[in-house]
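[SOLVED] Predicted holo structure with adenosine-5'-triphosphate

Edit: marking solved, answer below. Original request kept for reference. I posted the sequence and ligand SMILES and asked for the 3D complex as structure tokens.
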Amino acid sequence: MQVLPIYSGATTQQILSLGKLVVLTGPSGVGKGTLMQKLLERHPELYYSVSATTRSPRPGEINGQNYYFVDRSQFEKLVAQGEFLEWAEFANNYYGTPRAAVLEKIKSGKLVVLEIELEGARQIRRSYPNALSIFILPPTFLELENRIRGRGQDSEEAIARRLNRAQAEIQAAGEFDIQIVNDDFETALHQIEAILFA
Ligand SMILES: Nc1ncnc2c1ncn2[C@@H]1O[C@H](COP(=O)(O)OP(=O)(O)OP(=O)(O)O)[C@@H](O)[C@H]1O
Ligand SMILES: Nc1nc2c(ncn2[C@@H]2O[C@H](COP(=O)(O)O)[C@@H](O)[C@H]2O)c(=O)[nH]1
């Protein structure tokens, strides 16, 4: 792709300050992915950043569509090369946002949405204060547990790790620009749409 002269030599910080970057975060199982999927269906003009992860694919997940599935040494090499806008270890696996794709989309004027966990969201907030951050909360902790279990995708050990971490993640909700409770799905979706397209 051709790089516009205005951007040649621009830093990540400068490029991100020109466009709109939105971070959707919240504990595992709260419904971030489901909300994101619906947002993309309804607003195909949004750009969803596909992350890299060392987690194994779940049934039905497609490499390059849900995630770029890589092994730990590949991931660590990408970190060393500065290929990630942010990255974190979550529930024994690495997750990271590929920098180049996000910057390209921002340059082309797209609204870019990252769906990431707490530590990565904090990194984005620190490094790119212009980004808009939305924290999704569950109506109750019990409902969060029911959703993770109901999804039927994680081992008992992985569920325990995710729930354990969720307690601390929920405490951090106030660090972010906006908090939305995903109780009734349609209501939460409309609240996000109202923020993104205000
Ligand atoms: N408002 C809602 N009411 C009831 N169930 C919901 C609601 N929103 C999402 N769910 C369900 O909760 C489960 C977890 O949702 P989802 O996988 O989107 O969570 P997540 O936050 O993306 O999790 P992770 O961070 O682990 O990827 C799914 O089965 C989804 O259908
Ligand atoms: N910091 C980052 N977190 C990410 C990224 N991509 C996804 N995630 C988050 O990881 C957890 C677990 O995801 P799962 O698919 O294994 O259930 C979840 O909170 C995702 O939002 C990323 O690039 N960076």
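OP edit: Strands lie at 20-25, 47-48, 51-53, 67-69, 84-90, 93-98, 111-115, 132-137, 178-181. Thanks to everyone who chimed in.
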